[in-house]
Design a protein that fits this description.
- The protein is mostly beta strands.
- It has 7 domains: about 290 residues, no CATH class; about 80 residues, Immunoglobulins (Immunoglobulin-like, Sandwich), CATH 2.60.40.10; about 80 residues, Immunoglobulins (Immunoglobulin-like); about 70 residues, Immunoglobulin-like, CATH 2.60.40.10; about 80 residues, Immunoglobulin-like; about 70 residues, Immunoglobulin-like; about 80 residues, Immunoglobulin-like, CATH 2.60.40.
- About 0% of the residues lie in helices and about 45% in strands.
- The chain has 2 helices and 69 strands.
- The strands form 18 sheets. Strands 1, 2, 3, 4, 5, 6, 7, 11, 14, 19 and 20 form an 11-stranded mixed sheet that branches. Strands 30, 31, 33, 34, 36, 37 and 38 form a 7-stranded mixed sheet that branches. Strands 22, 24, 25, 27, 28 and 29 form a 6-stranded mixed sheet that branches.
- Strand 66 and strand 67 form a beta hairpin.
- The longest helix has 6 residues.
- InterPro entries: PKD_dom_sf (IPR035986), T9SS_type_B (IPR026341).
């Protein structure tokens, strides 16, 4: 058989090829998700549809059907599948005549698709579900509203294929094969609706309200978002009262057997969900669900015209058969070629047990239901016969029946005194092993052994009590860190956590060596190493986690290059340089105008000290940090000569008066012109006009250079008249050739010999014809000019004429 799976892209491309198809020929169905070859991600999807072959309006089963998989967390579409028809078999009815008369003929049609996927693609912890969605139901269904417009939705939930980083193997429950049945009004009715689970998971059964999808009569939805609604019940009906009766329809939550004594004719829809539980870490956990939607018809079966209750006996044993363990008995019913037979065991139909005889070996209650082949009438039921099976009871020696996954147990038959002819081992009531006195047990189950001796044949074999061996799954320890990656800096740590459970024991390992005292579910790990958590559960099963490796990252220092002192405001912006560089670095502080590029602009800042910072945020703490530098913008030495130009006498050593600050350092240039160029007021001797420079450096190393022009006088010119009339021409007595800072004494006398002007040492404020703030009268005044440096003296007269 070749099973094909078309991936979602192709599947969506085929939507246009699928015409809307009414589903009034579909009476039920379900979906199975099977893991193939015990390999996670290797999946077979099986869709079972029950096709109404007589009420299909000339329809035939499709060659393929769609199944869509969604993620439970957000109902998001995951993938779509086209499942191709692989098998078609008819239902077997107990009374074909009656079923045909009531237009009951159903085909079970199987569709399959396979795909192989990386399990990590189905790793969401909340799981997934597969659906089949189409329209519509029969238009004459009794217990739901608008059945002709109500779509049919089959759904199976399945767990993630990865759990705690490991493949998780699971197959959904499989419903048993259905037989074709109808319900006779006011007759007790039982219907086996159970399933099996190849993984050995525990199953429970309950009713649910059937679901309807997004499809309608004119549109078959292929891409819905996984949000579905239940059908609407007619008044008086609900999921636990889908078929009215006394008692109404019920289901055995453990065995999955339906029972009802219907009191109303009609066609009734119901749905059963199988919940799948698995023991994980000592607790049963719901891991999946499978739903089966179906419908049953209640008809009025008249009393049979000529059929008595069938009589049943056990050949050779009468009506109270007692046999030895390992023997069989044949039940014989009243033989009638016009009858149809259905044998029952403990209230359930025995599949394919439809003849007038039955071979039985299990202890329990047997009975027979008989129908007329060519008459649709109520059935007749035989009396119940209880089959007893006897044996000599012996006990096993005490055994350790609990073991862990991956372990085995040896089970040895008890020693008996009689010679043994045969051993026969049983597991869960089925033959497990042949003629050996011990077996190896690898799976859970109920085991016993029957021992046949050479005693006389009328002695039953010895049968041991049953030992229930339980294979306990190992715990599934995982290590969960409290940070997103596995890297730390020197001195840091990562808190590693397991899954805390009651009665669990823990042991941590570092580089394959156990850590003394580390026996809780948490570990503070501060070294680069591989860490493993071993967990022992209450069943003494131990499992180690996958290693968790912690790596040490190298330290990367954060720095900011120092910035030189600014003597006065800088003329341009300054580039700050931080390390390590990159977009994760940010500059900040007063004057920083670009935080990403680190541009500092101090051109308009007041004098002072400013903090600038560089902060780098690396992936780890040891590769991050913030550093700060101080930038100083200070005022340079502040000094100005009283006059920017001075006059000296040619070839005469003259004192140049400068600043007098002991905290400053002086440097005159050209240095060769000075007696000591490091003095604030040095002496100089010139024979030509010269520009001098004074460099002043303060204690901060900040300096300034001040120019000084020096004029060299060779002779003196003394005017003999001034006209102080405020016309800005010749208003004061300008004596040329003595300079502003020359050592000169000038005295002016009136005609009575009184001094009206005197200047000692410099002639910075020329005589303007006033004395003590008052204007002197016009006239002739005498003067005396004494220049000690040149040993010269001049005398004469000065006329004031206004």
């Amino acid at each position: 058989m070749h099973v094909r799976c078309i991936i979602a892209i192709l599947w969506l491309g085929l939507l246009g090829l699928i015409a809307p198809i009414r589903a009034d020929h579909i009476v039920g169905g379900h979906i199975e998700i099977q893991t193939v070859n015990n390999k996670a991600g290797n999946i077979k999807v099986v869709l079972k549809l029950y096709f109404d072959a007589l009420n299909a309006q000339n329809s035939t089963p499709n060659e393929f059907e769609k199944v869509v998989i969604f993620r439970k967390r957000d109902n998001a579409f995951v993938r779509g599948l086209l499942c191709y028809k692989t098998k078609q078999v008819p239902f077997e009815y107990s009374n074909e005549y009656c079923s045909t008369l009531n237009r009951l003929k159903v085909l079970e049609i199987t569709y399959e698709a396979s795909f192989e996927e990386d399990p990590s693609a189905f790793s969401d912890a909340m799981g997934y579900y597969a659906t089949h969605d189409r329209c519509c139901r029969n238009d004459n269904i009794t217990n739901i509203k608008n059945s002709r417009l109500a779509g049919i939705l089959y759904r199976t939930d399945f767990p993630a294929m990865m759990r705690n980083g490991k493949p998780f193997i699971n197959s959904s429950p499989s419903f048993n094969v259905l037989s074709g049945e109808y319900i006779c009004l006011k007759d007790p009715f039982k219907f086996n609706f159970n399933g099996v689970d190849i993984d050995g998971d525990s199953l429970s059964y309950q009713f649910m309200t059937p679901m309807q999808g997004a499809s309608n009569a004119n549109y078959t939805d292929m891409t819905s978002q996984g949000v579905f609604t239940p059908v609407s019940w007619q008044s008086g009906y609900n999921e636990n009262n889908a078929i009215p009766g006394n008692p109404p329809l019920t289901i055995d939550p453990v065995r999955g057997t339906l029972s009802v004594k219907a009191n109303q004719i009609g066609l009734y829809v119901y749905a059963v969900v199988i919940s799948e539980y698995r023991k994980i870490r000592g607790k049963f956990e719901l891991i999946g669900k499978a739903t089966r939607d179906f419908q049953l018809r209640v008809i009025d079966c008249p009393p049979p015209s000529s059929i008595p209750n069938p009589d049943v006996i056990a050949l050779g044993y009468g009506t109270s058969p007692i046999i030895c363990f390992g023997e069989k008995v044949i039940f014989q019913a009243t033989q009638n070629p016009n009858w149809l037979y259905q044998w029952e065991f403990n209230g359930d139909n025995i599949p394919k047990a439809n003849s007038d005889t039955l071979t039985a070996f299990k202890p329990g209650v047997y009975n027979l239901t008989a129908y007329l082949k060519n008459e649709c009438s109520k059935a007749r039921t035989s009396r119940e016969i209880t089959l007893k099976v006897e044996s000599i009871k012996i006990k096993f020696t005490p055994q350790l029946t609990s073991f862990c996954e991956g372990e085995v147990r040896q089970l040895k038959a008890p020693d008996i005194t009689q010679p043994v002819i045969k051993y026969q081992w049983f597991k869960d009531q089925s033959i497990f092993a042949g003629n050996v006195n011990s077996i190896t047990i690898r799976e859970s189950g109920k085991y016993f052994v029957a021992i046949t001796t050479n005693l006389s044949t009328n002695v039953c074999p010895s049968v041991t009590d049953t030992l229930n061996f339980v294979k306990n799954p190992k715990p599934e320890p995982t290590i969960t860190p409290d940070k997103s990656d596995n890297k730390i800096c020197q001195g840091e740590s990562i808190l590693l956590s397991g899954i805390p459970e009651d009665k669990m024991k823990y042991q941590w390992f570092k580089n394959n060596l156990s850590l003394s005292g580390e026996i809780s579910d948490k570990l503070k790990a501060n070294e680069a190493a591989e860490y493993v958590l071993a967990v022992t559960d209450s069943n003494s099963c131990t499992q180690s986690s996958a290693p968790y490796k912690i790596e040490l990252v190298s330290n990367i220092p954060v720095s900011l290059d120092p910035v030189n002192l600014f003597c006065g405001n800088p003329n341009t912006t300054t580039q700050l340089v931080g390390s390590p560089s990159g977009s994760s670095g940010i500059y900040s502080g007063t004057g920083v105008t670009n935080q990403q590029l680190g541009i500092f602009d101090g051109r308009n800042l007041p004098f002072g000290t400013y903090d600038v910072s560089y902060e780098y945020k690396g992936a780890y703490a040891c590769q991050s940090g913030k550093v700060t530098q101080k930038i100083r913008i200070i005022k340079p030495p502040d000094y100005q000569f009283p006059n920017s130009t001075i006059t000296v006498w040619k070839e005469i050593e003259t004192l140049v008066k400068g600043p007098n600050n002991s905290n400053w350092i002086y440097s005159w240039s050209p240095a060769n012109l000075f007696s000591d160029p490091t003095l604030g007021s040095p002496k100089i001797k010139l024979n030509a006009n010269t520009k001098l420079w004074l460099k002043i450096t303060d204690q901060e190393g900040c300096d300034t250079k001040i120019p000084l022009d020096v004029l060299v006088n060779e002779r003196i010119f003394i005017p003999n008249i001034i006209t102080p009339n405020d016309d800005h021409e010749n208003d004061d007595w300008q004596i040329f050739g003595i300079g502003n800072n020359s050592e000169v004494n000038i005295t002016i006398f009136d005609r009575w010999g009184e001094i009206v002007f005197f200047s000692d040492g410099s002639y910075n404020s020329p005589f303007d014809g006033t004395y003590q703030g008052k204007k002197l009268p016009n006239g002739i005044y005498a003067y005396r000019i004494n220049i000690p440096a040149r040993k010269e003296q001049y005398e004469g007269t000065l006329t004031i004429a206004r």
